[in-house]
Amino acid sequence: MRKFEKVKNQNLSQAYVANPFLNDCIQSRYSTAKVVDMRDNHTLGKTKSGYATIRPKDPNKTY
To answer: Do the Cβ atoms of 22 and 16 come closer than 8 Å?
Structure first.
């Protein structure tokens, strides 16, 4: 029979479960995800159904 060992995990506190990105700033999360920078880099458009679309002018501009 296999013996199971208990694993102590310090990271599962209530604060960590509520927000796992507590220790990271948003700029570092954007740069690791290679998000398109939409500041002064977007165009607005309308669809036939009345919704608005936001598209980047230059999709290669990232954080």
So the answer is: yes
